[in-house]
Amino acid sequence: MKKIVLAVSAVMLSAVTVAMAAGDPIATRKTLMDANGAAAGVSAAMLKGDLDYNPAIAKSAIMTLRAVAHSYGSFFPEGSDKGDTKASPKIWSDNAGFEAELAKFRADADAAAKAAGKDGPADLDAFKAAVTPVFGHCKTCHQDYRLK
Amino acid sequence: MTVRRLILAIIVLVVAGGLAFWLLTIPRGLDPKSVADLAPGDAARGERIFWAGGCISCHGRPGAKGDARLQLAGELELKTPFGIFVPPNISPDKADGIGAWTLGDFANALKRGVSPEGRHYYPAFPYPSYSRMKLGDVADLFAFIKTLPPVSGRTPPDQLSFPYSVRRGIGLWKLLYLSDKPVVRLPADASEQAKEGQYLVEGPGHCGECHTPRSFLGGTEDSRWLSGAVAVEGKGHVPNITSGKGGIGDWSEKDIAYYLESGFTPDFDSVGGAMVDVQENIAHLTAADREAIAAYLRAVPPHPNGYPASKK
What we know:
Chain A is mainly alpha-helical. Chain A contains six helices and no strands. Chain A is about 70% helix and about 0% strand.
C-alpha cells in the first residue's frame, strides 16, 4: 500500500519534475523516467487489482506518460553519453531510429490522453486499452537504446 | 652428443605433447547407447523447453516479431572479444538447417557441444548449461523444433582470432568447464519448487552464461554464480541477480515472477537490452515455472557484484 501511495504522489509531482528541466541532462532525463516508472506503477496496481480503479488517477498517469513522451527526447545532447547513464551509444549513432521510437511513444500517449477525455477513462477496460500500447514502448525502446 | 640428446629430447617432448593434445581434445559425444534408447520426443512438451531455452534469442532473425520469430535462420552476429560468432540456421530445413539430423546428433550438440561431423562447437552456443538438461527434454525440444517452418540459407562462418580459431583447443576447455552436475548446492531443505527452478535456470534457461563473470579462459566462475558480469557483447554490464550487494535482494519472489512475466521491475522500470528477448521467451512459460525460477534465485548464495564498480 505504501508503495502505491508513493507512486500516486510521484505521479502528482511529475509536472514539477518536468519543470525542473535545466542544467544536467542526464539527471533530468532520469527524473523523467522516474515519473514514467511511477505512472506505470500506479497503472499496473489498478490493472492487477491491487488498487481500486479511479479515473482521475488513471488520467493523471496517462498525462504523466504524455508529458514525458513530449519532453524526453530533448535531453540527449551530444556528449551526454558520458557519465552516470545507461543510455546506449546507439541513441547518437542511430539518432533517426531513436527519434522514430520517441515519435511512436508520443503518438500512443496522445491517443491515450484523447481517450481519457475530461474525466479519465470510464472504466478499467477503457484504461487498459488506452495505456497498453504506451507501455509497449518501454521495452522496445529500452531494448535498442539502453544498455542492459 | 649432448646437443643431439637435447634435440632428441625436444622432439620426443613435442611429439608427446602433440599426441597428448590430440588425445585430450578428441570431441566426445554421449554414450551411443543412452541416445539409442531414447524415446522420440513430444512436441507439445518441447515447446516449454524451447521457450525456457531461448533458442530464438540467438537463432531467430534479429528484430523479427510475432510468428516470424519462429524462423530459426540464424543471421545474428555476436561480437565478442574472441571474435564474431554467427549462430547457424537451426530450422528444420533438410539442406541448410538441422532437418536431416538424428535425435542423437541433436543430443550430442546440446549436451556435449559436438557437431554431427564430430567437431567441437564453440561455447558461445551455451551447451555448458544445456549439458545439464534431461535427455527426455532434449528429445521433446527436438520434436518441437521439427514443427517449426524450414528456412533455407546458410549463415557465414564465425570470424575468430588466434588462438581461439584453433577449434580443437575447445577440447581442453571442455575438460575444465563442461559438466552436467548442478552448479549450486541447494540447502537440504530446499523446496521442490526451488529445485525445479534450479533445473530451469542452470540447464535450459542458461542464465549463468551472461549473469556470471568469466575467467580469462572464458569459463564461468561458479564461485561467483549469477553475480553479474561485464557484458561479453557490447558495452555495459549484466546485472547481479543474487541477493548480494548490488543484486536483487530487495525483490520478493512475486516481484521476480512479475518481472519475468511483464518486463517490469518493482520500481516499474522496464526490461531492456538483450534481456527483452529473454523475458519475452520466459513469459511463454507457466506462472508455476516463473515462480520456480524466482524460488531458486532466492535460494542461491548471495555474492557482491561480479563486475567492476566503474562499469555502469
